[in-house]
Amino acid sequence: KDLHAHGIRSVTVIPNGSDAVPLSSLDDKPLQSPLRLICVSRIAPNKRVDHAIRATKLLVERNVAAELTIVGGGETKPELEQLAKTLGLEDKIRFTGQLSEEQKNLELQKAHFLVHTSLREGWGLNVIEANAMGTPAAVYPVGGLVDSTVPGQTGLVTAAETPESLAEALAGIVKTPELYTRYRINAWERSKTFAWPAILPQMVAWLEAQAKAK
Fold first, then answer.
1. How far apart are CA 144 and CA 191, in angstroms?
2. Which residues pair with 50 in a beta bridge?
3. Tag placement on the chain: N or C end, fewer CB within 10 Å?
């Protein structure tokens, strides 16, 4: 859309490939208490991880038992750790630091939702990685994330870019566990379409077409 807006007439979209191998099958993961949230991100101001922490606080205030795991490192980690203490969430927020791919995937499998509150993403690859582990995402309505999550099908896209809106969306889904199960299945199935065997032929075909055109 941005390219079209700048006058580019011919645009071919080839989805990002993902190294994450989707689970061979989905185990049951009922949406039961506590609501397990995970944020996988470089901890920097533009990622707005503090919004995920504040949304967790709002959920707790709504009597929705919620826990948040934050995977990753970055310059604002000390500030976020202090924010968790200030909000009285020391027992609800867990900072893991950097993890191996295997460890990260295990954390994603355990979580009910990946939360992604960036200002903007080019695509949001970690959404697809979470989907491959059977975990849908709850994301802000920003560039990239509105493409990696299909609202109402593979996860939640909030109405606004605020912790309040994120908490509202998550509190709502807790009341409809059957909808959550559908999101899980749809997200997992869609993640398979981003495997390299599905993506590479599209890339090769496009490159060959450009070579022939010259």
1. 16
2. none
3. C
Are 62 and 163 contacting, i.e. CB atoms less than 8 angstroms apart? no
**φ, ψ for residue 175 (rounded to 5)?**
-80, -10
Angle between helices 177-191 and 125-132 (to 10 degrees): 110
Taking the model in full, what pTM does it have? Answer: 0.92
Distance CA 127, CA 115 (A): 9
Evaluate the omega torsion of the peptide bond into residue 34 and state whether it is cis, within 30 degrees of 0.
yes
pLDDT in tens, the chain (214 residues): 889 999 998 999 999 999 999 999 999 999 989 999 999 999 999 999 999 999 999 999 999 999 999 999 999 999 999 999 999 999 999 999 999 999 999 999 999 999 999 999 989 999 999 999 999 999 999 999 999 999 999 999 999 999 999 999 999 999 999 999 999 999 999 999 999 999 999 999 999 999 998 7
Between the alpha carbon of residue 39 and those of residues 14, 93, 94, 185, the distances in Å are 26, 11, 10, 20
CA atoms within a 13 Å half-sphere pointing along the CA-CB vector of 139: 31
> Tokens in use for 138?
């709850």
DSSP 191-205: HGGGBHHHHHHHHHH
